[in-house]
Amino acid sequence: MTVRQADAAATEAVPAPSAPAQTAAVRCRIAVRGVVQGVGFRPFVHALATELGLTGQVTNTPDGVVAEAEGPPAAVARFAARIREDAPPLAMVESADVLDIPVTGGTGFAIRPSRTDGPSRTLVAPDAATCDACLAELRDPADRRYRHPFLTCTHCGPRFTIVTALPYDRAMTTMARFPMCPRCAQEYADPADRRFHAQPIACHDCGPRLRLTGADPRPGDDPLTATRRLLADGAVVAVKGLGGYHLVCDAADDDAVARLRQRKARGDKPFAVMARQLSDVERLVHVSDAERALLTGPARPIVLLRRRPPHGAAPLSPAVAPGSPDLGVMLPYTPLHHLLLGLPGDPPGPGLLVMTSGNTAGEPIVTDDDEALRRLAHLADAWLTHDRPIQVPCDDSVVRLCDGEPLFVRRSRGHAPFPVTLPVPVRPALATGGDLKNVLCLGEGRRAWLSAHIGDMDDLATQQAFHRAEEHLETVTGVRPELLAADRHPGYRSTQWARRHAGERQVVHVQHHHAHIAAAMAEHGLDGSRPVIGVAFDGTGYGDDGAIWGGEVLLADYDGYRRLGHLRYVPLPGGDATVRRPYRMALAQLHAAGLDAAADLPPVAACPPDERRLLHQQLRCGLNCVPTSSMGRLFDAVSSLAGVCHHAGYEAQAALALEAAALTAADDDHGPGYAFALDAADPAAPAVADPAPVLAAVLADLRAGVAPALIAARFHTAVAALVHRWCRLARDRTGLDTVALTGGVFANTLLATTTARLLRADGLTVLLHRRVPPNDGGLALGQLVIAARRADGPD
């Protein structure tokens, strides 16, 4: 039976009872590819075949799942169609190829042992939040898994973080060390059971098991009860989760939150909180239907929700997210989380928990138990751990709504390693990403697999984590890269790693902003046959001329790019020192604009006198001043100029604070707008935008006593208007009408939404990121597509 015949037969009307039944049997083999292992697919196939009265077998292979079904033609056709249509909730069927084979006879339908021959080509499922059926068992005193911290079934629980190799069987996971007890083994072998072939199956008898280290529990306390008491008493506890350790404390305890912030050297960077249920945070934040769906879905990311104005006694310390317009919220996604927050009838405990990655700033998340005791010793008062190893580090994903759709700030747990389907085929390749928010990408054919979030590559431990992530992703995808792609910046650790590990393989260096634009094109399915107008705004990227780019408009496809516009270059005095101290960038922008840095200006007051004298000399002489066109640095400068933020304790703090200020401005009339000067006289040259008029208008508003919030709002409006002017000019010159908005600056939802609306109102098609982050967490996808098409060509 062909695929066409199977589809046609499946859609035919069922014959009336009086019609003669077909008795001649047929047999087909169906090769199913996609996320079909570790999601209950073989039990689903077994149940489907049994329902339809078919005989045959099903097995895992390195390429996916292969089923053979025999019986009446109409029933076999329905079987072939329903394999795709009725797949289990965590499955993702990419293809189901049907082939007629000879009838063999036999009785019953069997699940055969997995085949391990051949290279791996199947897809591993991400970890999934505890399903409702398991949660009901967790809460039921009569159930044998009552209060078991590791209960799971074919529809939920750990997947990617425990896989050691494929095909996905218990022996190929970190559950291999836990022999199933007789009752679990019976459930595992029972086709009628929800845990039929659920590889992480577990119970109180067979493990895994919790243990509490660093604190003495009271007599009769189990590790969870003791941990809840510690949290209620103000302790910081390191808790082992699915993809690593969290540092946890009571989110309502000012002292505990401040202590965690101080120990982790967190500065003012917001913490995320975990709530038992949405009703616990609904008076703190606005929650739309789309955000509710994100919070309660199987991925359970951290969702950035807009905060409500404070009123009454809040169940949240102000130190959790100081100065942030958003609160990062997630709901429990493991049985352990539900138990930490308490089941119905449990003694009162913390209702909201700070849940932050178990690491020191700049280091990767800790996964190993011995390493946790050592690396988190100065951060935690106690450790709640367990004996199931974590194979793959996996931080929580972070999502926000932008322009009405989800936008990833960090794509990790719950989504990695779901592949991105590529619009063009690529040869086997590895892209190493950037040095901030590093994520690597493997690709072959029309699939690209992105790793979980790895972190910032400045730290040796992160570079080691990068290497382990690369090896594991090769193992579970079967891709053996023939070439490597890396950023053009010669100092990037990710680029240096590619050179060290290339061997005889080619390394293709990809321009940073070209990669950003290509990532947006790829995730939206553009085949590259027609260029786009790419607007790439971020903090830093190595330019063709050796300058630091970051306010770019490029005419781009996968094969190349041309610079259509950019922000005017200004000096970046002192590199990282200026990134950490936005007042320096403000003074540099004033210098470049020829504006007087008068003593009454906020950045002048923020800069110590000695530093101000040295900075003036540095700018006058051009000493250690790399030119930059970065829009991210312009946001820093205006943030300081408006008196919003002068010191950045974490990446993009000044820009985030400026967005937060703008959101508090009145929604009605922002008054006189700001406008960039745009030099577009030469059609053959890039159109250069000069921020000097904007800066002069900001100074005038400051001296007129205009509130910082209104200055911030006017600046956002000016940037959106600039993008609109640039894109209209590009359309007039090229005839193109598709715009890709990309780069970390477009994680700013106020800017992205305002800009997209202006462009659409003018008839332009707008591409915003939906499947990978706009920041450097999506960079590797663009590198991969560009490099695999440009390999063996000029670098």
Automatic annotation (TrEMBL):
GO molecular function: acylphosphatase activity; carboxyl- or carbamoyltransferase activity; double-stranded RNA binding; ligase activity; zinc ion binding
Keywords, in A-Z order: Hydrolase, Ligase, Metal-binding, Zinc, Zinc-finger
Domain YrdC-like: residue ranges: 221-414
Record has RNA-binding as a keyword: no
Domain of life (superkingdom): Bacteria
Family recorded in the similarity comment: Belongs to the carbamoyltransferase HypF family.
Record-given protein name: Carbamoyltransferase
